[in-house]
Amino acid sequence: MEDYYYMEELVQKIPVISICCYLFWKIIKHFVKLLDVEKDPMIVLVTGAAGIYFYDFYAHTSYLRADISVSKSLYRCQIGYALVPMIARGEMLGPDQPVILHMLDIEPAAEALNGVKMELIDAALPLLKGVVATTNVVEACTGVDIAVMVGGFPRKEGMERKDVMSKNVSIYKAQASALEEHAAENCKVLVVANPANTNALILKEYAPSIPEKNITCLTRLDHNRALGQVSEKLDIHVGNVKNVIIWGNHSSTQYPDVNHATATTDLKETPIKELVSNDQWLNTEFITTVQQRGAAIIKARKLSSALSAASSACDHIHDWVLGTPKGKWVSMGVYSDGSYGIPEGLVYSFPVTCDKGEWSIVQSLKIDEFSRAKMDATAKELIEEKSLAYSCLN
Ligand SMILES: NC(=O)c1ccc[n+]([C@@H]2O[C@H](COP(=O)([O-])OP(=O)(O)OC[C@H]3O[C@@H](n4cnc5c(N)ncnc54)[C@H](O)[C@@H]3O)[C@@H](O)[C@H]2O)c1
Ligand SMILES: O=C(O)C[C@H](O)C(=O)O
């Protein structure tokens, strides 16, 4: 009898229990959502963040990049200035990832750098949880999770490659040591400043405790340029083209390769070679257009690429940290492990996929004779750059 009353009482309480469960579930969901938004901020360092070239600081003559000279009277607002708002808007680490920006530049750029900080504050960006603008390399590197190295010494008229290399060796030596000592344990580094592959190698040399897997350079801009050229040629949206490859150096010896690339049209995936159906164009004009695109931008703008470089830097880190979609690869300058017969000890651009914050080189792609020769030629240039850089060490 007692059991019966107990059961009846329980049945009567079912609506109340259900409502309580429902409310409890709602509250939990609300807190989980709150937790999601309140991820811990990541600290992102951008060097060369003022994006202003002070020719007085660097000396006297006009500014020469990619063999095209640009008037010395221009003040430049370049990659750094384009990049920091992109990072602060979530384009690099995602729309739910708060960030703290550390911006480093040289002493003559301190006032301009502070101006960039003022603008970031004025933009009232919800994801931006703090800004440090400094000319102190230790302060800039402290606690950094992601380092984007844009600052460097530009090549000037009359300068030998060795002179530029030796300036960059000393800049990258100092910044590597500061990163090694003061950055977060698993700091990921992207080198943008030219010569990007070799600057990354120097950085690796002077930051031996940063795992080599964490030091990369930017060839995603070249990758995106190759996607853009194919999409223009086929008159299809760039988002429908995938799996081009940039092999080698971020220089005019790089090899943009479409042998494994495909495009999706009418829900069907087809090899680019088949769609373009013009090997002559793919083996000549396409390659040189991508190789020379940086110089063409400088010629047109009288400045080097900035918005596309900043956007590609965001793509690089975004895919590295958050992963590449299934079936899709991207190009990254990474430390060679000997894959595809590329000598170990070079920072060389390979096709990679990324998962859980780690990149892996795409293996077993068929390489024909034409590609082999081009891949070896760009490796040869990197070997020469490496020996030039090492001759500047000490
Ligand atoms: N890898 C790529 O795809 C790619 C694409 C475009 C440009 N780049 C290279 O990126 C670099 C930056 O280009 P930009 O147009 O922004 O140049 P920029 O001259 O406008 O800006 C460079 C900034 O670096 C600063 N800087 C110089 N030495 C520094 C140091 N020791 N520490 C910190 N900051 C320092 C300068 O004051 C300046 O503000 C160049 O080397 C350029 O060739 C690479
Ligand atoms: O700065 C340059 O020399 C060119 C740049 O690397 C680019 O590819 O746009």
From TrEMBL:
<feature type="domain" description="Lactate/malate dehydrogenase N-terminal">
    <location>
        <begin position="78"/>
        <end position="215"/>
    </location>
</feature>
<dbReference type="GO" id="GO:0006108">
    <property type="term" value="P:malate metabolic process"/>
</dbReference>
<comment type="similarity">
    <text>Belongs to the LDH/MDH superfamily. MDH type 2 family.</text>
</comment>
<dbReference type="InterPro" id="IPR011274">
    <property type="entry name" value="Malate_DH_NAD-dep_euk"/>
</dbReference>
<feature type="domain" description="Lactate/malate dehydrogenase C-terminal">
    <location>
        <begin position="219"/>
        <end position="387"/>
    </location>
</feature>
<keyword id="KW-0560">Oxidoreductase</keyword>
<keyword id="KW-0816">Tricarboxylic acid cycle</keyword>
<dbReference type="InterPro" id="IPR022383">
    <property type="entry name" value="Lactate/malate_DH_C"/>
</dbReference>
<dbReference type="Pfam" id="PF02866">
    <property type="entry name" value="Ldh_1_C"/>
</dbReference>
<dbReference type="InterPro" id="IPR015955">
    <property type="entry name" value="Lactate_DH/Glyco_Ohase_4_C"/>
</dbReference>
<dbReference type="GO" id="GO:0006099">
    <property type="term" value="P:tricarboxylic acid cycle"/>
</dbReference>
<protein>
    <recommendedName>
        <fullName>Malate dehydrogenase</fullName>
        <ecNumber>1.1.1.37</ecNumber>
    </recommendedName>
</protein>
<keyword id="KW-0520">NAD</keyword>
<dbReference type="InterPro" id="IPR001252">
    <property type="entry name" value="Malate_DH_AS"/>
</dbReference>
<dbReference type="GO" id="GO:0030060">
    <property type="term" value="F:L-malate dehydrogenase (NAD+) activity"/>
</dbReference>
<dbReference type="Pfam" id="PF00056">
    <property type="entry name" value="Ldh_1_N"/>
</dbReference>
<dbReference type="InterPro" id="IPR036291">
    <property type="entry name" value="NAD(P)-bd_dom_sf"/>
</dbReference>
<dbReference type="InterPro" id="IPR001236">
    <property type="entry name" value="Lactate/malate_DH_N"/>
</dbReference>
<dbReference type="InterPro" id="IPR010945">
    <property type="entry name" value="Malate_DH_type2"/>
</dbReference>
